[in-house]
Amino acid sequence: MVKTLGIEQFAPMNHIYRFYELNDYMKSIAEIGYHSMDLWTCGSHYFVDSNNYEDTKYIKKLMSQYDIRIVSITPRQSCPNPFHMAVKKTELREKAKQYFQNMILAAHELSCPKLLITSGWQSYSETRQEAWDRSVWMVGELCRFAEKYGVSLTMETLSRQSTTLVNTISDLKQMMKEVNSKVFTITADIHTIYNAKESIQDYFDTFGKKLNHCHFMDYKNGIRSHLAWGDGEADIKEILDIFDRNRFSGHFVLEYTDSKYFLEPFKVYEKTYHIIRQNL
């Protein structure tokens, strides 16, 4: 049995509630027993662009009503979304910067401590270094902005199918060194770590307390989607034991992406809740 982890550290993401309203999502996860959530900024739930961000009053009302805390915000930023850290066009770079700044401002208003970021991606017709330099510059600019608002930017690795920039611990370590900001932190994505043939303990050994966030999901060899616990082949007890031994005080975001969960997401998160409870 784990000694240092609690159910309040586990946060469902609204990704699989995309065909439901935000109120449906928050009401249902509260009824299950969760007290934390990750806000994925799909436009139908919470709209942010380079010009503005949606008023936070409604979400604050729901947070109070359902006793839920937003522990992280996950902006849409993967290919082919136009706003990402390594965007090339000059005009888009400024708009991307404003987009992420608006995310930081929204996080501040919602008392949310973390914004999930990735490295962005390179065009295959340019060198990796060109895209890498743009990514470092953008992340650095945003970290300096986030420092004023008490928000951490927590970066995850992505698969080589998504980017060639930050795929491994070594890449993350180099990004952290070049950005050089106290608010730059690390996310461990269970599935990506498995695909990269690295280990969770490697992350703790390399980053220590800078590791403050986890994308927590099951996985199955040969399946690209992030699966709900019980649908794959990962050992949840073994994984939680590693986080427990390292006295992890961050959050576990339930990032499920398979479309088979879209119809009845309540049942998916309810099943996960009981699995987690059994292993705490």
In short:
The protein is 40% helix and 13% strand. With 280 residues, the chain is of the alpha/beta class.
Describe this structure in words.
It is a single chain. With 280 residues, the chain is an alpha/beta fold. It is built from 9 helices and 8 strands. It has helices spanning 22-32, 57-66, 90-109, 128-147, 169-179, 190-195, 200-207, 236-245, 265-279; strands at 10-12, 36-40, 69-74, 114-117, 152-155, 184-189, 211-215, 251-254. The strands form 2 sheets. The protein has a 6-stranded parallel beta sheet with strand order 1-8-7-6-5-4. β5 (152-155), α5 and β6 form a beta-alpha-beta unit. α1 runs parallel beside α9 and α3 runs parallel beside α4 (128-147). The N and C termini lie close together (6 Å).
Number of strands: 8
* Span between termini: 6 Å
**Number of separate helices:** 9
Strand order of the largest sheet: 1-8-7-6-5-4
Mean pLDDT: 96
Main beta sheet, described? 6 strands, parallel
Computed over alpha carbons, the radius of gyration is: 18 Å
The share of residues in helices is 25-40%
Low-confidence stretches: none
Q: H/E order of the elements?
A: EHEHEHEHEHEHHEHEH
As a percent range, the share of strand residues is 5-15%
